[in-house]
Amino acid sequence: MKKDRRILVTGGCGYVGTVLVPKLLRRYPVTVLDSLLFGNHLKPAANLSVVEGDIRDARLMRSLLSKATDVIHLASIANDPCSDLDPALTYQVNRDAVAQLVNTAKEVGVSRFISASSSSVYGVKEEESVTEDLSLEPLTLYAKTKAESEKIVAAAAGNGFTTVSIRSATVCGPSPRMRFDVIVNIMAKSAIVDGTITVFGGGQHRPNIHIDDITDLYVMLLEVPADKINGKVFNAGATNHTVKEIAEMAQAETGATIKIDSNVTDNRSYRISSEKIKRELGFEPEKPIRQAIKDIKEAFANGVFPNPNSSIYYNIKTMKEKMAGRAV
Ligand SMILES: NC(=O)c1ccc[n+]([C@@H]2O[C@H](COP(=O)([O-])OP(=O)(O)OC[C@H]3O[C@@H](n4cnc5c(N)ncnc54)[C@H](O)[C@@H]3O)[C@@H](O)[C@H]2O)c1
User: Fold this and answer.
1) To test the ligand 1 pocket, which listed residue (10, 13, 15, 122) has its Cβ within 8 A of the most ligand atoms?
2) Among 32, 73, 116, 248, which residue's Cβ finds the most Cβ atoms within 10 Å?
3) Residue whose CA is closest, atom 18 of ligand 1?
4) pLDDT tens-place string over residues 209-258
5) Domains in the chain and their CATH numbers?
């Protein structure tokens, strides 16, 4: 019987995981399972074990799940263009492996499974306030596999196995495993490095959340009473800003010039409501989006990103390089 808690974080070496894991280590021993697509930027620690492997490896996952009390599942092909590179692989990683993980986790006595979904599952909605009860109309393969994985996760809940999926807004702010391919970070980087920010259209709304807030939420979800989250989904985002507003925040922080390009290739506009998670769990993001830009600026000033155009900061560039060199 498992008594002491041990948290298994899949994808723990990714952008979100690398900020989350040190927070978890203050309270629990942690095992990270990651295929290390973007390397490992976690600092070694006595109560941290990092295992290089693939969530599709059923034997390995059974052995790791047997030793875990809780799972935070982050491993994923984590954006639209990467998901489109090899659709069969995307279904395997983002959907089929999740089914295998939750079934095995339940069988071996894991008590809680927290899964990272995405607010992109809604597609584009007319509603001003996109709440969890609205239908899902995912527009991309990535969003479709996230929507399907949510159903798998919710269906497994019960008999002492607590599950929850978080429909995260786009994450922003610095991480030791940085991504410069998410909207706020893209704009902050071009403002700082190039002195200009190009905005395509600009009226589109995009929900974002600071990386410190989303990682605080994952930590909190390990402790909230099971009946408040079991089998549920929650949106998690800070204020919904337009793309132009985000550019203006980056301009205010850096003095960069904004160039508006009316040649809009992506006019998707989303606004998610994060009222349910506030009402039912008391979670409210603390950091405004502008703080993420300030934090990225400070990281640049401290020399954290000496080569910001390196492929490692862009999931699609890294995935293409890996696929050209070997199987992912
Ligand atoms: N970053 C965002 O804006 C955002 C927004 C909404 C949801 N999410 C979700 O949050 C999670 C974490 O996102 P992130 O930004 O840290 O992504 P990321 O790409 O930085 O990290 C994903 C990690 O998963 C690992 N991984 C990929 N395939 C694997 C496999 N088959 N087996 C084991 N490990 C594998 C990668 O090596 C990587 O370290 C993802 O599920 C993502 O879909 C992210």
Assistant:
1) 15
2) 32
3) 14
4) 999 999 999 999 999 999 999 999 999 999 889 999 999 999 999 999 99
5) 7-177+208-237+270-286 (3.40.50.720)
Specify whether the CB–CB gap between 235 and 299 falls below 8 A. no
Within the chain, what is the greatest distance between any pair of CA atoms? 61
Residue 215 CB less than 6 A away from ligand 1:
no
Task: Give one DSSP letter per residue of 148-192, joined into a string.
Answer: HHHHHHHHT-BTTBEEEEEEEPEEES--SS--SSSHHHHHHHHHH
Asked if residue 192 has its Cβ within 6 Å of ligand 1, the reply is no
- Ligand 1 centre from 181 Cα, in Å? 13
Token code pair at residue 73 = 């599942």
Phi, psi at residue 166, to the nearest 5°? -110, 120
Atom of ligand 1 nearest to the CA of 142: 43
Contacts with 107 (C-beta within 8 Å, 6 or more apart), sequence order: none
Asked if residue 124 has pLDDT above 90, the reply is no
Tell me, using a 6 A CB cutoff, whether residue 168 lines ligand 1. yes
Selection from 190, 187, 199 nearest residue 290 by Cα: 187
Residue 262 alpha carbon to ligand 1 centre in Å: 32
pLDDT digits (tens, 9 = 90+) for 50-74: 999 999 999 999 999 999 999 999 9
Q: Are 33 and 93 in contact (CB under 8 A)?
A: no
pLDDT in tens, 269-310: 788 999 999 999 999 999 999 999 999 999 999 999 999 999
The helix/strand/coil state of 18 is helix
